[in-house]
Write a structure and sequence with these properties.
Chain lengths: ~525, ~250
């Protein structure tokens, strides 16, 4: 491949890949061969992304992934329609999912910039080329974002848009509705990414991560306060929601499918503008200053925690000292919490069903076991323990212990906070808590069993994704249905749910143990 | 005394054959070189010798142990320097050595003294409390070298030990390896650097296409070894030598 390197960037700089960083993107383009180079960069990044996934999962397992999503969405759409959910509610649900996915995609990079370096450093043209070629990081990042938006728009958002099929049925106009829904969701996904990339850019300009976290928390508190004021300061604790939609964005504001062209244009320009501004603000020369152990909790302190060992302590240090620190699992659960709260509110407004809040929140919040496990394994590889006299099983056990120490308390804290805010009946809250712990253990065990040490990678493996989804649905759907239908909870139903929680916890524990043996065997055969 | 014995090892990663009848022995107290081009099967061999990988076929014995059956016990008794593996990013070198010391069951006082010795030997004193992720690659390699020797094992497997090190430290490490072997310990050096193998190894196994082609005793200069190496590689490439047909010769 020949890249026209031009002359501008070479003249500007003295340190190789960082030389043209002070130039805005437009100057880069004019100096380096115009659109021909832009297309080459974009095409190469796209090719790299595509080959990464196809080589990781062996072709058809990756190609089958969108089909699995489409199948689940269409089946889910039919099921929800049959149970009385309106088209508006379902459309809103998939749009919120697209927005949340966009936010999450950006947040993963934002809260874990070490992860960004870690994951993409060796694999992607993004960071590698700016070190060896006269191409600015800013420029590559721009291409990377466009490429990522398109990639996810095709592999994830497009199959989600097929939800229109069960809502409208197959007809002459269905295709155009699907396309409009897809565009609407893609725009929201891109907006979510742009917001968090903007935060990454601000971070490179010195805005401290904790400051950003506090701004987010203050924004939520502010939203809540405004909501209270709008309701005249009177809050019925049995019905109040932290993400009440009253006064917030309505369905029309989120779903652009039927919006006027001017609205489309406004959102499009806003998203592109925010993305462009983020790139302008982004400081490519930003590097983390050398960090010492001074002012940090020493390794020995983690080692001294009850029930830990050196492997657990190392995992905790990795989590706490990497970018975002303990904020990472908190941010993950906060996003999940936001989505759940929003959906509960919408469902309540549209269907007038008052769910059993404890059961509902407990069941869904346990899903953060997946993201927490992801954070616990992000800076680690089984192979790196090969130099020490420890078994692969011991490494997996250490991750589980770390999950007990970090994941469960975070979930429990979030759950208790929400319950204190909403004030559901005690029986509901207690049942939900047991479900939270039991299902979290089950989701954890299931994740480890299916994905081994690489939970992030299995997202695009059709077989693993399907296995994980079915495994989650087996326990999550029944508890959610009960949470919506049997309100208020009866003692009998509560006892059944408590038993479900206990069985789920036990099952999760067994799955985690089996997973350790399963993956240890694979690693020793060189098949992992 | 034979400290390490490998006989007819075979291993494949899917359709790619990594080892195809690998056989050799390592004697106690020697510095044994494992010289071969990229993809010859060196790292896979070390993976099996240290119990990280299970071979498809063949026998292996290390310090009288079967690494396949007793991987943890084997790794307790040997030291391992993996190829191009950085230390844990978010620990400092001192904390990483504490971690390794605890995993290997070293006494605290012993550990402290050895950290001091190694920090002085490799010039790490000023960096002991900096996060590993913020060290240069050369400094990270020094940290990894230290962890391999921290428990003073009688047998050490080192994979490309001098990579990323500056010339001065390279000489220091080479001198240390010779000194360590002179003290009665055994060093297994995997490398594709002919100069390194010629300078420090008592015997060198030349590995091509997953099998040991020849075991030779270098005369301290690189020329003869280079000639032998190129000859083995070319012969292996053009004729396809039968697996496990390694000959033993002196220079």
């Amino acid at each position: 491949m020949v890249i026209d390197v031009g002359t501008q960037s070479v003249r500007n700089g003295e340190d190789g890949g960082r030389d043209d960083e002070s130039s805005p993107p437009s100057e880069d383009r004019s100096a380096n061969g115009g659109l021909g180079l832009e297309w080459t960069l974009f095409r190469t990044l796209w090719l790299e992304e595509w080959r990464l996934h196809t080589s990781l999962f062996g072709g058809w397992r990756f190609y089958g992934f969108p089909l699995v999503i489409a199948g689940l969405v269409v089946a889910g759409g039919y099921a929800l329609t049959a149970t009385g959910y309106s088209s508006d509610a379902i459309l809103l649900g998939v749009h919120v999912t697209a927005l949340a996915f966009g936010l999450y995609s950006g947040t993963a990079a934002f809260a874990g910039s070490d992860m960004l370096e870690n994951v993409f450093g060796d694999l992607s043209l993004l960071l590698g080329s700016s070190n060896s070629l006269p191409l600015s990081r800013r420029r590559l990042l721009g291409h990377f974002l466009v490429k990522d938006t398109l990639f996810y728009a095709i592999t994830i958002v497009a199959p989600l848009a097929l939800v229109v099929v069960p809502l409208e049925g197959l007809g002459v106009a269905t295709l155009s509705t699907v396309v409009r829904t897809w565009l609407s969701m893609t725009l929201l996904f891109a907006a979510g990414m742009a917001i968090t990339v903007g935060l990454i850019a601000l971070r490179t300009r010195g805005l401290p991560l904790r400051g950003v976290g506090w701004v987010g928390i203050l924004a939520i508190v502010g939203w809540l306060a405004v909501g209270r004021l709008e309701r005249g300061g009177v809050v019925d604790p049995g019905r109040a929601e932290p993400f009440e939609t009253t006064g917030g964005p309505g369905i029309d504001a989120v779903v652009l499918t039927t919006a006027a062209p001017t609205t489309w244009l406004a959102v499009l320009l806003g998203t592109v503008g925010l993305g462009a501004l983020s790139l302008r603000v982004y400081d490519p020369s930003y590097t983390t200053p050398a960090r010492s152990s001074e002012g940090r909790v020493p390794f020995a302190r983690y080692r001294a925690l009850p029930g830990t060992n050196p492997l657990v302590a190392k995992t905790l240090v990795d989590l706490v000292r990497s970018s975002g620190g303990l904020f990472k699992p908190v941010v993950s659960i906060a996003i999940l919490l936001g989505v759940v709260a929003f959906l509960v509110t919408v469902v309540r407004e549209i269907t007038t069903i008052e769910p059993a809040l404890g059961v509902f929140y407990g069941s869904v919040l346990g899903l953060s076991a997946f993201t927490t496990y992801n954070w616990l394994t992000q800076f680690d590889a089984v192979e790196s323990y090969g130099a020490y006299p420890v078994t692969v099983e011991a490494v997996f056990r250490a991750k589980q212990l770390a999950f007990f120490l970090v994941g469960l308390p975070t979930m429990a804290g979030a759950y208790l906070l929400v319950m204190a805010w909403l004030g559901p009946p005690v029986l509901d809250a207690v049942t939900g808590f047991v479900l939270l712990v039991g299902l979290a253990l089950y989701y954890y065990g299931l994740t480890v069993y299916v994905a081994g040490f690489d939970p992030n990678e299995f997202l695009f493996d059709a077989v693993r994704f399907l296995g994980f989804t079915v495994g989650v649905a087996c326990l999550l759907l029944p508890t959610l249905v009960v949470g919506f239908v049997v309100v208020p909870l009866t003692a009998t139903v509560a006892a059944a749910l408590l038993a479900t929680g206990l069985v789920a916890g036990l099952l999760g524990h067994l799955l985690a143990r089996r997973a350790a043996r399963r993956w240890a065997d694979r690693y020793r055969r060189g098949q992992a | 005394m034979t400290i390490c014995r490998v006989d007819g090892l075979e291993h494949a990663f899917g359709s790619v054959t990594a080892l195809d009848g690998m056989s050799f022995t390592v004697e106690a107290g020697e510095c044994f070189g494992f010289l071969g081009p990229n993809g010859a099967g060196k790292t896979t061999s070390i993976g099996i010798l240290t119990g990280q990988l299970t071979p498809d076929a063949g026998e292996v014995e290390v310090l009288g142990l079967d690494p396949t059956a007793t991987p943890v016990e084997t790794r307790h008794r040997v030291g391992i320097l993996p190829e191009q593996q950085p230390p844990p990013s978010f620990l400092t070198p001192r904390e990483y050595f504490e971690f390794v010391g605890q995993v290997r069951g070293l006494e605290e006082a012993t550990l402290e003294s050895r950290i001091d010795t190694w920090a002085a030997r490799l010039g790490l004193h000023g960096k002991l409390d900096t996060l590993n992720t913020d060290l240069s690659r050369g400094q990270q390699q020094k940290v990894m070298i230290t962890q391999a020797f921290l428990h003073e094992p009688e047998l050490v497997f080192i994979d490309e030990p001098l990579v990323n090190l500056d010339p001065l430290v390279q000489e220091q490490v080479k001198a240390f390896l010779l000194e360590y072997a002179d003290a009665g310990n055994t060093i297994f050096v995997s490398t594709h650097n002919i100069d390194v193998a010629a300078a420090i190894c008592d015997r060198v196994a030349i590995v091509v296409d997953g099998a040991c082609r020849v075991v030779t005793e270098p005369d301290g200069t690189a020329d003869a070894l280079r000639h032998r190496f190129l000859e083995s590689v070319e012969r292996g490439a053009s004729q396809g030598m039968p697996a496990g047909s390694g000959e033993v010769s002196g220079e």
